[in-house]
Automatic annotation (TrEMBL):
Protein name: R13L1/DRL21-like LRR repeat region domain-containing protein
Keywords, comma-separated and alphabetical: Leucine-rich repeat, Plant defense
Protein origin, superkingdom: Eukaryota
Signal peptide from the UniProt entry: none
Length: 375
């Protein structure tokens, strides 16, 4: 279609009283329009609910196509519920409302009905300005992936309905907006492959927090106040040297999974971090030497899994007091440095893990008062 869309696809604010060919359009997909250099002005389509903008590789700016001069009050994309922007290889700037235009217009509202926003594979995107998310009060899902030059995410203070936020492969980000903590409905926060990320805000309503391959993240914010947390997954966080505090404040026992955290040397539980854990999984933490957690106080622990920790020397001596423990999966064959293992007073435990015969450094093994062990 050339560098620009045809005139029948373009409408502006000043012609809002007239009929427009696309007024009844509900879903629109702009895909593989390689030659186009700009997005058509679609903000006034009253019925548009789903919009895909995919692989328009010559578009460098979005948002500047809106003609708002003289508009006193306007709702842009009034019915849009789903917006997917993907494969915009040259997109550098996305401005939902141009500042000088917004200043001259009264009551400019953008995406008032938006529920799902997905931005994928926009490697040159540096500037994303929304003027704040105050008008996006219905947004429930936000997904940003492979935007390696994105330096900041707009303030999230207005996202009162946000339930799920996924962030992947955005290496330019060093932090997330503090306003994320005010998203009172946020249940799931998943972050993967953000190598520049060094800190996180606290989000009180989370039930799932998963952080993967963020090597410069040195600490996890306190879990105190996260009463709904059910799962905490930490994968490939090589800068992590200690666990977050406050897991004991959760209403129900959460699951804790730690995988490939190479700088985690010891796990101590001075503050009762693990006393309310339901499932504890530790895998491939190559430098982990000791687990001294006060496990005997973990009255809720039902499953303990430790695998591929070759330098592990000792596990908490009071593991024998875990009356709720029903299974142990240790991958013991990998724990070649383990010297002492005691399992005692675990009435629900029905089996001993395989691999004990491979523990060449084991000097003390005690299994006592576990009356339901079958093998």
């Amino acid at each position: 279609i050339g560098k620009r869309f045809p005139s029948w696809m373009v409408n502006d604010v000043n012609s809002s009283g007239s009929s427009f060919l696309l007024d009844n359009m509900v879903e629109l997909e702009l895909i593989n329009c390689y030659e186009c250099t700009c997005i058509p002005s679609l903000g006034l389509l009253p019925s548009l609910k789903v919009l895909y903008i995919v692989r328009m590789e010559n578009v460098r700016r979005m948002g500047h196509e809106l003609q708002l001069d003289g508009a006193e009050s306007i709702r842009l994309f009034p019915a849009l519920k789903t917006l997917i922007v993907r494969g915009m290889k040259r997109l550098e700037e996305w401005v939902e409302v141009v500042e000088d235009v917004a200043a001259g217009s009264q009551g400019v509202i953008v995406f008032p009905s938006l529920k799902k926003l997905l931005i994928f594979d926009c490697p040159l995107l540096k500037t994303w300005s929304t003027g704040g998310f105050s008008s996006h009060h219905k947004l429930s899902e936000l997904w940003i992936e492979q935007c390696s030059n994105l330096m900041a995410i707009p303030g999230l203070d207005g996202l009162s309905a946000l339930k799920k936020f996924q962030l992947r492969s955005c290496n330019g980000l060093t932090s997330l907006p503090i306003g994320l903590g005010s998203c009172i409905c946020l249940q799931s926060l998943e972050i993967k492959g953000c190598h520049g990320l060094t800190s996180l805000p606290s989000c009180i309503s989370l039930w799932l927090l998963q952080i993967e391959d963020c090597p410069n993240l040195n600490s996890i914010p306190s879990i105190n106040g996260l009463t709904s947390l059910k799962r905490l997954n930490l994968f490939g966080c090589h800068g992590l040297t200690c666990l977050p505090i406050g897991l004991d404040s959760c209403n129900s026992p959460p699951q804790l999974t730690i995988i490939r955290c190479s700088n985690l040397i010891s796990i101590f539980d001075y503050n009762g971090i693990l006393r309310s854990i339901n499932v504890l999984t530790i895998i491939n933490c190559e430098n982990l030497r000791r687990i001294q957690t006060g496990l005997g106080c973990c009255s809720s622990l039902q499953k303990l899994e430790i695998k591929d920790c070759p330098n592990l020397i000792s596990i908490a001596e009071d593991i024998g007091k875990l009356h709720s423990l029903s299974s142990i999966h240790t991958g013991l064959g990998y724990s070649i440095s383990l010297q002492k293992l005691e399992i005692e007073f675990c009435p629900n435990l029905i089996s001993i893990p395989d691999g004990i015969e491979k523990l060449c450094s084991l000097s003390v093994l005690r299994i006592a008062d576990c009356e339901n062990i079958r093998s």
